């Protein structure tokens, strides 16, 4: 009997967590749809709660602010990137690991029209634009942690940090310039071109160092 009660508790706990996850996703989906339709500033928490069929208090149980809905959505990109890095072959060079993982994840992300719409929304909304810069630091740390599992020792970890910093910096610039170009090039082609530039710059640094020595 005791064993049966323990199993029932585990099952009940699993069901509660699933219900919370489903409610959070419902709120997020409703909020994103309203933000895209009406604009961020024109959408109220009351609007979101009504669309998600939850109370206003329930909204705040899951998201402290409207901004948190947007950035929780973006956190999914980092989680997908870490998973994609983990799936790459163990003997693949780190920069190739990052390139293939990044291209796969970003290509899948932009296939969802909401991703581009959210990007435009952030650019058009000062409150979101200011906080948006914080996501790059978080994404960089996610990438460092994912790469660190593929390296050994302090030197390996340092290399992971340097590569993550360089790639996320390039991604930040690439996102801005791709939007400025009115998205005239596919995101995959543009990402590949960014990584080609990174490789060229790394090679150029090596050449410069060799000339100085």
Automatic annotation (TrEMBL):
DNA-binding region(s) in UniProt: 44-63
GO molecular function: DNA-binding transcription factor activity; transcription cis-regulatory region binding
SUPFAM superfamilies: Homeodomain-like
Comp. bias (Polar residues): 1-11
Pfam families: TetR_C_14, TetR_N
HTH tetR-type domain ranges (all copies): 21-81
Protein name: TetR family transcriptional regulator
Species whose genome carries this gene: Pseudorhodoplanes sinuspersici
């Amino acid at each position: 009997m005791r064993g049966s009660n323990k199993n029932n508790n585990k099952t009940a706990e699993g069901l509660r967590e699933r219900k919370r996850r489903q409610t959070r996703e419902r709120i997020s989906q409703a909020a994103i749809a309203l933000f895209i339709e009406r604009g961020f500033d024109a959408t109220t928490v009351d609007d979101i709660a009504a669309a998600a069929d939850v109370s206003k208090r329930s909204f705040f149980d899951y998201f402290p602010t409207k901004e948190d809905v947007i950035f929780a959505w973006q956190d999914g990109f980092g989680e997908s990137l870490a998973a994609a890095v983990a799936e790459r072959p163990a003997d693949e060079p780190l920069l190739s690991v990052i390139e293939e993982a990044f291209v796969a994840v970003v290509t899948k992300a932009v296939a969802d029209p909401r991703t581009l719409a959210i990007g435009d929304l952030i650019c058009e909304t000062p409150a979101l634009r200011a906080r948006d810069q914080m996501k790059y630091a978080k994404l960089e740390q996610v990438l460092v942690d994912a790469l660190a599992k593929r390296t050994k020792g302090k030197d390996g970890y340092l290399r992971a940090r340097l590569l993550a910093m360089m790639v996320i910096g390039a991604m930040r610039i690439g996102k801005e310039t791709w939007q400025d170009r009115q998205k005239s090039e596919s995101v995959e082609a543009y990402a590949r071109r960014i990584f080609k530039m990174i490789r060229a710059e790394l090679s150029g640094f090596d050449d410069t160092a060799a000339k100085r020595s």
